[in-house]
């Protein structure tokens, strides 16, 4: 095969064969386990030495989508969250496809959500926490994305609350009578977090 780039890394014939060998050797492993094995074998690491497992996951999905490797059927995660193959591919190809590190993943999610969410929209609180003043079930109007350095573990949105505005995590909200794109984008973000991913 000619060289192809996934998640900023070039995969030539030798690299592809290395990946295929890992998949064959560990045929009974889950996708998550295979992801870590491939990441370690390719020594794909961040500057701090930790594995770039998110980039590797996107690369494997890209190779799978292009018919270059075979992956085992998805399994339930530890949280018993149902794996959604279509949603997984959309996130990999539309949100994270050109992201090479955590900061770019944040930017990828921010751009994706900002593009697909139709502001303003109505939502209700589905989770209480110290990070949000909202009470469970409380309805709010969502005005915009918040893009700043505080959005390190969750995407934040600006909402109208108590005669003013404040920022709350998007993962704490559920849309009310929103359009299809808005509902899909919110669900994509909730799903990504529910399957154990973090920014």
List descriptors.
alpha+beta, 6 helices, five-stranded antiparallel sheet, 199 residues, 7 strands
Please explain how this structure is put together.
The protein has 199 residues and is α+β, with helices and mostly antiparallel strands. 39% of the residues lie in helices and 17% in strands. It has 6 helices and 7 strands; from the N terminus they run E-E-H-H-H-H-H-E-E-E-E-E-H. The strands form 2 sheets. It has a 5-stranded antiparallel β-sheet. Strands 1-2 form a two-stranded antiparallel sheet. Helix 5 runs antiparallel to helix 6. The longest helix has 15 residues, at 102-116. The protein is elongated, with a radius of gyration of 19 Å. The model is unreliable at 76-80 (pLDDT under 50).
At a glance:
The chain is built from 6 helices and 7 strands. It has 199 residues and is an alpha+beta fold.
